[in-house]
Amino acid sequence: MTTGTVKRVDADIQLDVLAELAWDRRVQPNEIGVVVTDGVVTLTGWVDSYLKRWAAAEAAHRVPGVTAVANDIEVRLPSYLQRTDAELAEEVVQALQRDAVVPLEDVKVTVSHGKVTLRGQLDWGHQKDDAERAVRRLAGIRAVSNELTIKAHSGPAPDELKKQIEDALLRSAATDAERITVEVRGDHLTLMGTVHSFAEKRAAERVAWSAPGIATVENLISVNSFID
Length: 228
Known about the structure:
The protein has helices at 10-23, 50-61, 85-99, 125-136, 158-171, 198-209, and strands at 32-37, 40-47, 68-71, 74-75, 107-112, 115-122, 143-150, 180-185, 188-195, 216-219, 222-223. It is of the alpha/beta class.
């Protein structure tokens, strides 16, 4: 059997997810339950912030052999962190003004029962990520729904854009560009191939979102930590 066909057993994946949760200082592993079935990790339990819930899922994704994560962790806010929706909405707007490189006039913020929804159209994919990153750190939120979209605008011809993205992937130390295929159709970009980790898959997507003229990115890259 070659290394490319090795599949990790669920018990080993579970132990590594628990170890990764213990390593990540943003979460407390005693709060979180971990079940693994055929490489799919289910996280359970409750935490006192949305950031912890998000960080737990990110930690699980970093473990080799994990194919998907079902995040069933519940956010239960202590009384001193509870805010009204109006207070949260104001804090979200301030966070976007302070921490995100986004035109605030293009972002519509809705808060309902502690869940923050971001809507609107932005020029670049990294702005969408920046907006969510700024919001999820706020104390008192229970969930974040990022429904921001990217405006379609003119860019290089598809063949030229494809080459630019491939060159950018080659320059990125975080990706193995030789294993990633890029397809451009109009303002839609598709990433395919196989990489060693979820972090590498995310890094490739960040590179793709920086391309001019791209409105949507479909990330079909699969993760296999045992590829040669």
